[in-house]
Design goal:
Blueprint: H1 9-22, H2 26-38, H3 42-55, H4 58-71, H5 74-88, E1 90-99, E2 102-111
Antiparallel strand pairs: 1-2
Helix pairs in contact: 1-2, 2-3, 4-5
């Protein structure tokens, strides 16, 4: 809620740092990265997100990718798929489709075959 409304981001960052001190996990590192990005600290955000990806399981990466897909962030989603497709055990593909008079990019995720 604090992050969605850009409300008291400094306080949110302190809370997240406390959470990370207690237990450093993908979820709290990813949240810290989003807070830093909203605050305009993009370089520091990228470093924290990279650290979060190192700690992430395949399921966490897949959930992160699905979140990017739901938000409509196609370029970030494709970068995530390219970087982590082996760990996530998925293949992502992008196609262009017509919806009415608009051409939209559709990204699909499917499991890798063994």
């Amino acid at each position: 809620m604090v992050l969605d409304n850009n409300y008291e981001l400094e306080q949110a960052l302190k809370w997240e740092d406390t959470s990370i001190q207690n237990e450093e996990r993908f979820e709290n590192l990813e949240t810290k990265s989003r807070i830093l990005e909203v605050m305009g600290k993009k370089e520091e955000s990228a470093k924290v997100l990279s650290k979060a990806f190192d700690k992430a399981s395949a399921i966490q990466l897949y959930s992160y990718a699905r979140g990017l897909q739901r938000s409509g962030n196609a370029s970030a989603l494709l970068n995530c798929i390219r970087k982590f497709r082996r760990r996530m055990r998925i293949i992502g593909s992008a196609t262009w489709r017509w919806r009415g008079s608009r051409r939209t990019r559709v990204i699909s995720l499917r499991p890798l075959r063994k």
